[in-house]
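Section 5: illustrative case.
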């Protein structure tokens, strides 16, 4: 191949990489870890500064928008329905499609629009509280749809099934962990048909039989596995058939068992380690690559374990040798990723936190429920760079695309950009 040809190939890869970097296809971003592949984002904003646009939403919900190109998708209650919205990145609503009838359900944070969509650039995939699982094209056409309660049994869970299915290659991985059944399922993303289903056994009792965490993929350089957290255990499953490869125990020790330990925060993975949180300020575990069999506290596949610090709702963030744990009470823990040693513990804005933090260009963005976003410099020394506030309530995690920060509030969707734009 000539030098010119190689140059063209190199340019093509750079363009494709840049395009992918601008997309936010999953609630935790392109690598499912909360870390953005972009080099800029506003530091300061308000209702009157660096607000590109603000779009009223038809109902209160906590799902994170996903973005591909100039299309943004999110779910929302609307009157008696739960709908999928397609919004152009200039703030114009393009279409909406009904996903299910709204149910008489919880108020406030536990609402019908909590599970976030996922997209592969051609289709968008959704799960809502009623059990409706659906695939739509970017033009709004319904490709397939089914009721998970009809197919896999009636849900029995205090706050509803709200985790986000994992989209990877040609499959959509669905996790249903509730008192009436524990299932891990692989679907053909093109048809919605079941590829495999396994029962995920657990001896959890009380409401610990229920879980709300979303699955993640762990590529530890030896193998790829589906990671499922909930009901007192984390488990790794073979992608091909769901076979359980390893099981992490002692997350809810029998000697001091807590039957109210519902796991909500989701695990996060890098090739070198898997980070597993529990809840309520308790255990966080780092697992080594190559894990297999039953892993107990202090076992050979455990890198470290700390007895405190787990967030109740926000998921951890792991980057550049550091672990960030944004607690639901506004405490920010920073740990050494190799040892689990605490580097700092600082309090951010005092409020409740449900959104998971994101990191972009050396800054950690942590969003409180009352609309205050703390911007912290990443690294071993705590430095608060800014605290920005919007007039809304927020439980959805942030999304980023093309240098804009998208924040889904209970009342409106906000696009934060470098320059203000009148609408």
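Designed sequence:
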């Amino acid at each position: 191949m000539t030098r010119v040809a190689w140059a063209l190939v190199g340019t093509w890869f750079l363009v494709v990489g840049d395009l992918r970097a601008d997309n936010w296809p999953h609630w935790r971003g392109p690598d499912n870890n909360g870390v953005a592949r972009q080099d800029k984002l506003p530091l300061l904003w308000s209702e009157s500064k660096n607000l590109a646009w603000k779009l009223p939403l038809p109902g209160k919900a906590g799902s994170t928008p996903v973005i591909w190109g100039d299309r943004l998708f999110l779910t929302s209650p609307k009157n008696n329905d739960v709908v999928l919205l397609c919004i152009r990145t200039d703030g114009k609503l393009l279409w909406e499609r009904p996903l299910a009838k709204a149910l008489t359900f919880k108020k406030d944070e536990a609402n019908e629009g909590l599970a976030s969509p996922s997209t592969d650039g051609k289709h968008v995939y959704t799960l809502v509280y009623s059990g409706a699982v659906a695939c739509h094209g970017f033009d709004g056409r319904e490709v397939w749809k089914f009721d998970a309660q009809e197919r896999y049994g009636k849900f029995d869970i205090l706050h509803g099934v709200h985790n986000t299915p994992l989209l990877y290659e040609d499959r959509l991985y669905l996790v249903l962990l509730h008192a009436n059944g524990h299932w891990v399922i692989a679907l053909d993303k093109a048809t919605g048909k079941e590829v495999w289903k396994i029962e995920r056994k657990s001896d959890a009792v009380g409401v610990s039989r229920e879980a709300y965490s979303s699955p993640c993929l762990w590529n530890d350089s030896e193998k790829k596995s589906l990671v499922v957290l909930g009901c007192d255990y984390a488990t790794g499953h073979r992608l091909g058939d769901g076979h359980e490869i390893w099981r992490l125990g002692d997350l809810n020790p029998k000697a001091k068992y807590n039957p109210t330990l519902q796991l909500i925060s989701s695990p996060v993975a890098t090739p070198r380690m898997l980070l597993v949180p529990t809840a309520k300020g308790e255990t966080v575990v780092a697992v080594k690559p190559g894990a297999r069999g039953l892993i107990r506290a202090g076992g050979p596949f455990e890198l470290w374990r700390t007895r405190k610090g787990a967030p109740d709702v926000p998921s951890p963030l792991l980057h550049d040798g550091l672990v960030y744990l944004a607690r639901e009470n506004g405490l920010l823990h920073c740990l050494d990723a190799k040892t689990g040693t605490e580097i700092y513990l600082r309090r951010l804005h005092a409020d409740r936190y449900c959104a998971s933090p994101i990191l972009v260009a050396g800054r950690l963005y942590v969003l409180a429920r009352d609309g205050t976003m703390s911007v912290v410099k990443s690294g071993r020394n705590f430095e608060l760079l800014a605290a920005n506030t919007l007039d809304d309530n927020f439980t959805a995690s942030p999304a980023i695309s093309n240098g804009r920060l998208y924040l889904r509030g209970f009342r409106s969707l906000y696009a934060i950009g470098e320059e203000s734009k009148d609408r």
